[in-house]
Design brief:
Blueprint: E1 6-10, H1 32-41, E2 46-55, E3 58-69, H2 82-96, E4 98-102, E5 113-115, H3 121-140, E6 148-154, H4 159-164, E7 171-174, E8 178-182, H5 190-196, H6 199-211, E9 216-219, H7 222-227, H8 229-241, H9 254-262, E10 266-273, E11 276-286, E12 289-297, H10 299-305, H11 307-321, E13 326-330, H12 334-339, E14 343-345, E15 348-353, H13 356-360, H14 362-369
Parallel strand pairs: 4-6, 12-13
Antiparallel strand pairs: 1-2, 2-3, 3-4, 3-5, 6-15, 7-15, 8-13, 8-14, 9-10, 10-11, 11-12
């Protein structure tokens, strides 16, 4: 007898079944607490839905979907040349401004779904695909045409399941890799990390630490985050708008809400010079994994004090000292992250355009709008 699953789409966290978190035990980004963060402080151009996969009346899978309206963005990023930026803006608004994502566009990694081990994964993916089609209809009924449906970010060993589930007609893509730092089990303190660095990179470490002289690092609580809200957001916006490409900008209250709901699972560090905030970085505890989150800094002191590089070293030190197994650094600033020990991990996705003609040329358009980033991988260890 063939296994059949069904699905339910939820609009609000308050609607989610009581057993939801039993399936999200290994991923904090699929919990109701995190979804409440999104509900209270998602980017202005984002709408979230939550998908439950059922076998009869038993919840056997959970998933997150995000709708992005790129036409609401004033800028996609400031590093592009004027003509390229203008072309991107025109193309996106007319052909790909409405994107439906099964997954989390604010993070790197597989935060799309979680399934019980006992179930048929192929059938679950088929059901998830049906749910995405239903979501397109829901948005259509609101007068919003979905241009692109995409499932992201998956590692290579997950691809066969998608193909068996009927995703052959989707464009399979890969973008910049996820930079991941695997912490050797024998390392107990940051000094083990420093000892493992080759001479060249140990000198880089020492130089960066000398440059940071005069900077005081503090762990900030909710009251502090609220107090420095304007400065924090200005620093974040500086980094975000200078990225090659952006599909969202955080809500101003995002860090406050995250700290309020995540408490000690969300770490916020401020960097001060003479009592003045000059930068910040954030970490999220996800089981045995540390996810690096958003950061920002005063552009006027970044180069002189090597603020960004020192933040990376601080993230490594914290993770080792506190017994974490892995650090997720995400898919930006690839070369500098490799210089401190992170390794690239290829991530894949599937995408399909609603327009048949546009779908035929989707690969060329995707490669043009998201060109490969040229970078040199470093190895800082002996």
């Amino acid at each position: 007898m063939k296994t059949t699953y069904n699905y339910k789409i939820f609009n609000f966290v308050s609607e989610l079944p009581a057993e939801w978190n039993l399936l999200s035990t290994e991923n904090v980004f699929l919990t109701t607490t995190y979804f409440e963060v999104l509900e209270r402080s998602a980017p202005a151009n984002m709408i979230c839905h939550y998908i439950g996969i059922y076998q009869e009346n038993e919840l056997i899978g959970i998933a997150l979907s995000q709708f992005l309206n790129l036409s609401q963005l004033a800028t996609f990023g400031n590093k592009d040349q004027y003509m390229v930026k203008a072309i991107k803006k025109t193309v996106f608004k007319k052909l790909v401004s409405h994107i439906l994502i099964i997954g989390n566009n604010m993070l790197t990694g597989q935060h799309a779904f979680a399934l019980l081990d006992k179930i048929d994964k192929i059938e679950a993916l088929k059901t998830l695909k049906k749910a995405s089609e239903r979501l397109k209809t829901i948005f259509k009924n609101k007068g919003i045409k979905i241009h692109i449906t995409t499932f992201k970010d998956f590692e290579h060993d997950e691809l066969p399941s998608f193909l068996q589930a009927g995703f052959q007609s989707y464009y399979q893509f890969t973008t910049q890799p996820n930079m991941v730092f695997d912490i050797p089990s024998q390392w107990k303190t940051e000094y083990d990390y420093i000892d493992a660095l080759s001479k060249k990179y140990r000198e880089q470490y020492k130089r960066a630490r000398r440059k940071s002289d005069g900077i005081e690092k503090r762990k900030l609580d909710l009251e502090d985050i609220t107090k420095y809200e304007d400065t924090i957001y200005n620093f974040y916006q500086h980094v975000a708008t200078n990225a090659n490409f952006n599909t969202f900008f955080l809500a101003k209250n995002h860090f406050q809400v995250l700290k309020e709901l995540f408490k000690d699972k969300f770490l916020f560090y401020g960097y001060f010079i003479d009592g003045k905030l000059v930068g910040f970085n954030t970490l999220i505890k996800n089981g045995t994994i540390i996810d690096t989150y958003f950061l920002g800094y005063d552009k006027n002191i970044q180069r002189e004090k090597m603020v960004y590089l020192n933040m990376l070293y601080d993230m490594v030190a914290y993770s080792i000292n506190n017994g974490f197994k892995e650090i997720i650094f995400g898919r930006t600033a690839l070369e500098i992250k490799s210089s401190i020990g992170a390794k690239p991990r290829a991530m894949f996705g599937f995408a399909k355009h609603s327009n048949i003609i546009a779908d035929l040329t989707f690969e060329k358009a995707f490669n043009y709008l998201e060109p490969k980033v040229m970078w040199k991988e470093r190895n800082p260890f002996y």
